[in-house]
């Protein structure tokens, strides 16, 4: 729903009509709500949580104070699966939110310690128990890099999920102290089967990285084959070579400790590139091909890759899907077939940038020979200049 282009009164009528339906799954995205005018719209957004048959709800908005969407909920919700896609929610409001959904089994949310400017924020007293989430089985939490919550605050609500089976935490590296996590798991999350810890930022100093990762090489972590700790911040390929000892030690770990070191140039600026040229009808595609540095094929590849060479198209598709998810990759993606037709035709290892116009290849840009990355500004300018100078055809 875009309130810039829709009548709020008609939107409210549409929301009211949902009460008469028997849907179980609902995904809602609301944009175009200026903060200074929000209250004048009079939308009853809290009713999403009160629809009697809805069990799965995904919600996103561009409003910076999401508390208004559930402040007026007057009775517990029947929702079992909830994703709060955007924006981040303050930890104090998070405690109120989960009180409204006592039947939660799945939760995906973004947390922040930032304080709202529009009203006095709620604070959680850590000496009081967090609302018990006895049915919670899967919890995915993203902690904001700029205003993260500390580990004690994270522990405060994880202890309220005694039946948790799957946990995924994406946060700055400061929240990933191996000893602290071991204590939490053995004392409060004893049923946990799958754990994914994604460090979105971490020091570039090799010794510091080794200190962080070595702490996960104790007997407790080594035997946890379903647990993964991953350093997610991409570094330039050139720097990875300069720190080869560190990257090698990551690769040798018995516990699943990974560091993504490749696709740096493509990942960092794909969003800006896509958005810059989409209005002109220029379509940018990423094509996922055979692994250039497969862990099980190339000895040097074991130091920079955590992926085996796919043997089936299903495996290659899964790798591509995980890549898009892990890096929020916005560019549309195709997957080469298992005959490697695209790779054989274009010679695209480790990766290349091609421009095809009117059925003809007009540019094959090679990456820098030392960093194996592209200057996205140069590519952006080349596309813009070519678009302006191309032959005008009807």
UniProtKB/TrEMBL annotation:
Which molecular-function annotations from GO does this UniProt entry contain?
A: thyroxine 5'-deiodinase activity
Keywords for this protein: Oxidoreductase, Selenocysteine, Thyroid hormones biosynthesis
Top-rank lineage group of the source organism: Eukaryota
InterPro entries per the record? Iodothyronine_deiodinase
Q: Which GO terms describe its biological process?
A: hormone biosynthetic process
**Can the keyword Amino-acid biosynthesis be found in this entry's annotation?**
no
Output the PANTHER family linked to this UniProt entry: IODOTHYRONINE DEIODINASE, TYPE I IODOTHYRONINE DEIODINASE
Q: Which family is this protein grouped under?
A: Belongs to the iodothyronine deiodinase family.
Function per UniProt: Responsible for the deiodination of T4 (3,5,3',5'-tetraiodothyronine).
Please give the name of this protein.
Iodothyronine deiodinase
Write down the species.
Adineta steineri
């Amino acid at each position: 729903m875009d309130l810039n282009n829709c009548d709020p009164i008609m939107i409210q009528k549409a929301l009211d009509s949902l009460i008469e339906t028997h849907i179980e799954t609902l995904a809602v995205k609301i944009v175009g709500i200026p903060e200074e005018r929000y209250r004048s719209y009079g939308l009853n957004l809290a009713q999403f949580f009160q629809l009697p048959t809805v069990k799965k709800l995904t919600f996103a908005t561009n409003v910076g104070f999401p508390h208004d969407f559930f402040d007026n909920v007057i009775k517990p919700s029947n929702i079992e699966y909830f994703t709060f896609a955007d924006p981040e929610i303050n930890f104090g409001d998070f405690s109120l939110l989960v009180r409204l959904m006592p039947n939660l089994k799945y939760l995906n949310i973004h947390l922040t310690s930032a304080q709202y400017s529009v009203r006095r924020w709620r604070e959680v007293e850590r000496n009081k128990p967090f609302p018990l989430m006895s049915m919670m089985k899967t919890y995915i939490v993203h902690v904001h890099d700029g205003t993260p919550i500390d580990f004690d605050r994270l522990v405060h609500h994880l202890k309220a999920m005694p039946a948790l089976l799957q946990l995924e935490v994406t946060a700055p590296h400061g929240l990933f102290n191996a000893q602290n996590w071991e204590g939490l798991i053995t004392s409060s999350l004893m049923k946990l089967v799958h754990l994914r810890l994604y460090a979105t930022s971490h020091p570039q100093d090799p010794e510091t990285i080794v200190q962080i990762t070595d702490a996960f090489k104790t007997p407790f972590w080594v035997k946890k084959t379903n647990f993964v700790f991953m350093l997610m911040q991409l570094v330039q390929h050139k720097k990875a070579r300069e720190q080869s000892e560190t990257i090698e030690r990551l690769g040798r770990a018995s516990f699943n400790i990974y560091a993504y070191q490749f696709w740096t140039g493509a990942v960092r600026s794909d969003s800006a590139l896509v958005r810059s040229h989409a209005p002109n009808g220029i379509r940018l595609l990423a094509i996922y091909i055979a692994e250039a540095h497969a862990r099980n094929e190339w000895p040097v590849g074991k130091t920079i890759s955590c992926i085996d060479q796919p043997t089936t198209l299903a495996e290659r598709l899964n790798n591509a899907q995980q890549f898009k998810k892990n890096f929020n990759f916005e560019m549309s993606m195709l997957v080469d077939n298992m005959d490697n037709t695209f790779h054989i035709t274009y010679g695209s290892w480790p990766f290349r940038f091609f421009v095809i116009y009117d059925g003809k290849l007009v540019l094959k840009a090679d990456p820098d020979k030392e960093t194996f990355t592209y200057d996205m500004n140069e590519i952006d300018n080349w596309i813009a200049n070519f678009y302006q100078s191309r032959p005008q055809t009807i």
